[in-house]
Amino acid sequence: MTEEIDARKVRYGDSEALELLDGKSTLFVAKGKKVSRVDLRKDRPEDTALTGLMLGPTGNLRAPTLIVGKKVVVGFNQELYEDVFGG
C-alpha cells in the first residue's frame, strides 16, 4: 500500500512527525551528503532531538519522507536510497 501526502497541503508538526515513528525500528535522515541513522529500539533519543531531525525550518515535515516497512527515511540521498531500496 502506498500513500502520498502533499506537504504543501497537509502540515506535519512535532506530534504528527513522532506518530510516524510508532512501531518503527530505524530512522534515516539525509541532509546533503550526511546521513544519520537512529536505532529507535535501542538508542531512541528524546522527542525534541527526533523532531529536530525530521522537521525543516518551517516546522513542517521535511520532504521527501518515506516509510518502508519498519524504516522511516527523511530527506534524499542517492546512496541511502540504494541501501534502503536495494537499488
Structure description:
This protein has 87 residues and is of the alpha+beta class. It has one domain. It is built from three helices and four strands; from the N terminus they run αββαββα. It has helices at residues 14-19, 47-54, 78-85, and strands at residues 26-31, 34-39, 65-68, 71-74. It has a four-stranded mixed β-sheet, covered by helices on one side. A hairpin with a 2-residue loop joins strand 1 and strand 2.
Q: What proportion of the residues form beta strands (DSSP E)? A: 15-25%
Rg over alpha carbons: 12 Å
Tally of discrete structural domains: 1
Shape: globular
Q: Report the mean per-residue pLDDT as an integer.
A: 91
Structural class: alpha+beta
Low-confidence stretches: none
Distance between the termini: 20 Å
Helix content: 25-40%
One letter per element, helices H and strands E, the order comes to HEEHEEH
Biggest sheet record:
4 strands, mixed
Number of strands: 4
**Helical stretch tally:** 3
Strand order of the largest sheet: 2-1-4-3
What is shown here, in short?
The chain is α+β, with helices and mostly antiparallel strands and 87 residues long. The protein contains three helices and four strands, in the order H-E-E-H-E-E-H.
Topology:
Blueprint: H1 14-19, E1 26-31, E2 34-39, H2 47-54, E3 65-68, E4 71-74, H3 78-85
Parallel strand pairs: 1-4
Antiparallel strand pairs: 1-2, 3-4
Keywords, separated by commas or semicolons:
single chain, 87 residues, alpha+beta, 4-stranded mixed β-sheet, 4 strands
